[in-house]
Write a structure and sequence with these properties.
With 293 residues, this protein is an alpha/beta fold. The chain folds into two domains: 82 residues, lambda repressor-like DNA-binding domains (434 Repressor (Amino-terminal Domain)), CATH 1.10.260; 194 residues, Endonuclease, Chain A, CATH 3.30.870. The protein is built from 13 helices and six strands. Strands 3-2-1-4-5-6 form a six-stranded mixed sheet, sandwiched between helices. The longest helix is centred in the N-terminal third of the chain and has 18 residues. GO terms for molecular function: DNA binding. This is Helix-turn-helix domain-containing protein.
C-alpha cells in the first residue's frame, strides 16, 4: 500500500485532522457541532474508516486554525481519487486493518528508512503469501476464506513500497534472528519459498538483510545481543524524525520518550553488529533453505 493508495490517504488524512483538532484544544463533539454531523462521524473520519468530502475538510481546517501548509496537505489527501477499479479492494483493506495498525501503514508509506528486528518470524514486508496466510490463520482461526484472502492481500500489498519509483523506495535495514529461518511456518514448501524470497530481497539495492546467528559475532557488547527478544521497528520520517513501533499480541504502541527511542536505536546497532555480514547472511539463508527441499 503506497502513499497514493486511497486507503492510506484516508487514514493519513484522519490522523492529520485529529492532530489539528487536538492542537486547537477542541473535542470531537465540538467539531461535530460545527460541521453539523455526529460525534461518531468525526471519530470515523479521524480513524480513516469513512471518507470525508473536501468541502467538509475545508470547514474543519478553518475551525482548527490550520496553517497553510497543513491545510494544503489535508486538502491534497482529501482529493486523492478513488478509481472504481480499486474501490472494492480499498474497502476490503479498510475492513481488515485494525485501528492500532492504521497509523503504522501511514508511517510505513512515508518512511525514508526503516530498521526492523524480528525474533521469531519473518517480518511482514518480506513475507510470501503462503507464509503470511499461515500466520494470519493462526491469529484468526475463525476467519473465513474470503476474510483471510483479504488479510493476505493487505499484508502482501504493503510490499508495493519496495518497488515504487515516486517517491523512491525506503531503505530497509533488517535483522532477523536465525530462529526465523528454522521455525517452521506451514510446511517445508512454504519455508523453502519464504527463504528464497529472502534471498531475492537481499539483492535489492535498498535492502540490507542480516541474520543474527545462534552464535552471534563476538563484539564488545556481545552479551547484549541476547537481550532483545521483542520485535521492533524504527521508522525515519523526513519531517518528523524517528518513530518507534512496538507490536505485541494485543496491539501496538508508539512510545514518544526520546530516551527510550534512542535506547532501541542503540539496541538495533548492537544486534546489527553481532549479526553475520550481508554475504554470510545470504549464505546462511541459502544453506537453511536447502534443508526444506
Amino acid at each position: 500500500m503506497t502513499p497514493g493508495d486511497p486507503v492510506v490517504a484516508q487514514i493519513q488524512l484522519g490522523i492529520l485532522l485529529r492532530e489539528l483538532r487536538e492542537t486547537a484544544g477542541l473535542t470531537g463533539a465540538e467539531a461535530a457541532e460545527h460541521l453539523r454531523t455526529s460525534t461518531a462521524s468525526i471519530s470515523r473520519y479521524e480513524n480513516g474508516k469513512q471518507a470525508i468530502k473536501s468541502e467538509d475538510v475545508a470547514v474543519l481546517l478553518d475551525l482548527y486554525g490550520a496553517s497553510d501548509r497543513d491545510a494544503a496537505e489535508a486538502l491534497r489527501l482529501a482529493a486523492v481519487p478513488r478509481p472504481s477499479g480499486r474501490r472494492r479492494r480499498s474497502a476490503s483493506y479498510r475492513d481488515e486493518v485494525p485501528n492500532w495498525f492504521r497509523r503504522f501503514l501511514v508511517l510505513e508509506g512515508e518512511a525514508s528508512d526503516m530498521s526492523i528486528y524480528e525474533h521469531e518470524t519473518v517480518t511482514g514486508l518480506c513475507q510470501t503469501k503462503d507464509y503470511a496466510r499461515v500466520l494470519l490463520r493462526a491469529g484468526a482461526p475463525l476467519a473465513g476464506t474470503a476474510e483471510l484472502d483479504r488479510q493476505v492481500a493487505m499484508r502482501t500489498g504493503r510490499q508495493e513500497i519496495l518497488t515504487r519509483t515516486d517517491p523512491p523506495p525506503p531503505r530497509l535495514d533488517v535483522v532477523l534472528n536465525e530462529l526465523c529461518l528454522h521455525r517452521v511456518i506451514g510446511d517445508d514448501s512454504v519455508m523453502h519459498a519464504q527463504l528464497q524470497r529472502l534471498l531475492e530481497l537481499s539483492e535489492y539495492p535498498e535492502i540490507e538483510l542480516r541474520i543474527l546467528p545462534f552464535r552471534p559475532i563476538p563484539t564488545r557488547n556481545y552479551d547484549e545481543a541476547f537481550t532483545s527478544p521483542q520485535r521492533f521497528t524504527l521508522l525515519r520520517l523526513p519531517e518528523r524524525g524517528t518513530v518507534l513501533y512496538l507490536e505485541d499480541f494485543a496491539g501496538a504502541n508508539y512510545p514518544e520518550d526520546v530516551a527510550l527511542i534512542q535506547s532501541y536505536a542503540a539496541a538495533f546497532q548492537r544486534l546489527r553488529a553481532a549479526s553475520a555480514d550481508l554475504k554470510a547472511s545470504r549464505d546462511l539463508i541459502a544453506r537453511v533453505a536447502r534443508q526444506y527441499v
